[in-house]
Amino acid sequence: MKVIQPRPLNVRKMLLVGLVILGLVIWNSVRRPPPPKHPSWTGRTMGTTYTVSLADSPLKWNELRALHEDVETYLIHVNDLMSTYLPTSEISRFNASRTTEPVKVSDALATVTRFALKVSEESQGAFDPTVGPLVNLWGFGPEGDEGPPAEEALEAVRRMCGHRNLTVPSDTSLQKRISELQLDLNAVAKGYAVDHVADLALRTGAQNVFVEIGGECMAHGHNSGGGPWRIGIDVPSYGALPGEGLQEVVNLSGMAIATSGDYRNFHTNETGSVYAHIIDPRTGKPVAHQLASVSVLAGSCMKADALATALFVMGPVEGLRWIEAYPNAEALFVSREEDGSFRERASPGFEAFLGTDNP
Ligand code: AMP
Ligand code: MG
Questions:
Q1: Helix or strand holding residue 30 (H, E)
Q2: Rounded distance from Cα 216 to ligand 2 centre (Å)
Q3: Ligand 1: residues whose CB is within 6 Å?
Q4: 312 touches 291 (CB < 8 A)
Q5: What distance in angstroms lies between residue 176's CA and the mean position of ligand 1's atoms?
Q6: Ligand in nearest proximity to the CA of 301
Q7: I need a labelling partner for 229 at 20 to 30 A (CA). Which of 14, 147, 209, 316 fits?
Q8: What are the C-alpha distances in Å from 202 to residues 149, 195, 247?
Q9: Residues in contact with 72: Cβ distance below 8 Å, sequence separation at least 6, in sequence order
Q10: CA of 167 to the centre of ligand 2 (A)
Q11: DSSP H or E segment with residue 335
Q12: Which alpha helices (H) appear in 186-324, and where do they start and end?
């Protein structure tokens, strides 16, 4: 009988094998997965949230990281120019100045102001970027809420407003005609920033891009399923959260959509009636009609954003007539009915954008 002796352990060999295994474990844990095909991220800007989504993205990790950083840097920059909530922003400094001489500003501020004043003219003053003092007076601005104002206070503040009291004398300056005038671009700045962020993404070579800031959206190309981007329009119930209930779903590619409404930023007075943050410059008071929201489709988000605010002031009847005559823009108006239900009115071209499986 032969006794087979176990071979003596080769310690060096085992040590080597152990080291190789350890190396593989470490390599696996530090090795990056491939970059996502459909990257998406959210962040905070302009007192709200933003989203950037790409579909079938060609970007490598470092390109994606660079885009993320560029977007964040740009959004901080735009806030530093246009936020009326930042006392040090360019717009706040312009507002604090009392001169009626031209004031040098960035070309971005001059461009957006020029566009805002164009919409003011087109909408016969329904859109007015000088209503800031009225927005504040009604408790919707940086200065907080002290309830509805007295008539005399209202009249005094109205005298400080009026889009014709502001001009853009050059590509890098603004000029007040009355020294108390205040500029408020909150109704267009989000749309302007959305367009710029979408361009930043397109410049990387990405073709399928969705950008949204506080519900104002721009979509290019297709979504991760290969179809148009699908954007929900919220049911405009008071206090409802974004996406809680959908009124409609819109198919979007190469277009922007923006919504103005009274259902998210509103106050209630002693008699229980509700008033919201959009001012009718013709009365100096918050808009008072049955319109709960209006969504606008247009080629740029800055335009969609401004037109949505203008149409919210006009209301569903005058607004519908106006948008039907306006080139390359469509609108959906959602009004409150007596029984609490919502009624839709759309410009003829809007329906082509509605999803076939809509609510
Ligand atoms: P949006 O949500 O885009 O309709 O913008 C509303 C914001 O624009 C308000 O919070 C105000 O700062 C400002 N705003 C209010 N009324 C008007 C108006 N009639 N025209 C232009 N901006 C306005
Ligand atoms: Mg707007």
A1: helix 11-30
A2: 8
A3: 127-129, 131, 135, 140, 184, 186-187, 260, 277-279, 281, 305, 308-309, 312-313
A4: yes
A5: 20
A6: 2
A7: 316
A8: 47, 11, 30
A9: 43
A10: 21
A11: strand 329-336
A12: 189-202, 301-324
Q: Best of 264, 285, 309 to mutate for ligand 1, by most ligand atoms within 8 A of CB? A: 309
Neighbouring residues of the ion ligand 2, judged by CB less than 5 Å:
187, 305, 308-309
pTM of structure = 0.91
Atom of ligand 1 nearest to the CA of 312: 4
Which residue is listed with tokens 């007295």? 150
Question: Residue-wise pLDDT tens for the chain (359 aa)?
Answer: 555 565 666 777 778 877 877 777 677 667 779 999 999 999 999 999 999 999 999 999 999 999 999 999 999 999 999 999 999 999 999 999 999 999 999 999 999 999 999 999 999 999 999 999 999 999 998 888 888 899 999 999 999 999 999 999 999 999 999 999 999 999 999 999 999 999 999 999 999 999 999 999 999 999 999 999 999 999 999 888 888 899 999 999 999 999 999 888 888 887 878 888 999 999 999 998 899 999 999 999 999 999 999 999 999 999 999 999 999 999 999 999 999 899 999 999 999 999 776 77
Nearest to 39 by CA among 22, 15, 63, 18: 63
Ligand 1, from 115, 135, 266: best to mutate by most atoms within 8 Å of Cβ? 135
Geometric angle at alpha carbon 123, from 117 and 127, rounded to 5°: 55
Identity of the residue numbered 269: N
Q: Using the mean position of ligand 2's atoms as its centre, give its distance from the Cα of residue 193 in Å.
A: 12
- Distance separating alpha carbons of residues 163 and 131, to the nearest angstrom: 8
**Rounded Cα gap, residues 340 and 317, in angstroms:** 19
Q: Which of 35, 108, 32, 40 is nearest to 71 (CA)?
A: 40
- Label the pairing between strands 166-170 and 274-276: unpaired
